[in-house]
Amino acid sequence: MTDTYEVAAAKQIVQNGGGLWLGLQEGIDCNLVLFQSPKTQTTLSLYYDDTFNSEAVQNKIRNSDKTFKPKTPVVSACEHLAANIEATIETFHEETDKEKK
Question: Rounded to two decimals, what is the model's pTM?
């Protein structure tokens, strides 16, 4: 499965199925394609065999999304944290300015 063409093809299938590509896990008897649900960020896998296609990816994501709650997007969490830090710094400066007066 280390063939570059096969890896690129597997990645394209995951993306066409709506998944976020993570990579491949190679095994002795079988290989797994790893990807995430964009909605829940749940890590999912499918066997890399004759049944692996974009429809299988869509079905895996759909079934998983029914089970798991959506996560807060990482960007939103980072923006929220940055806003809290900015507010804390602003408050610190205001209090420091009051003490100087």
Answer: 0.67
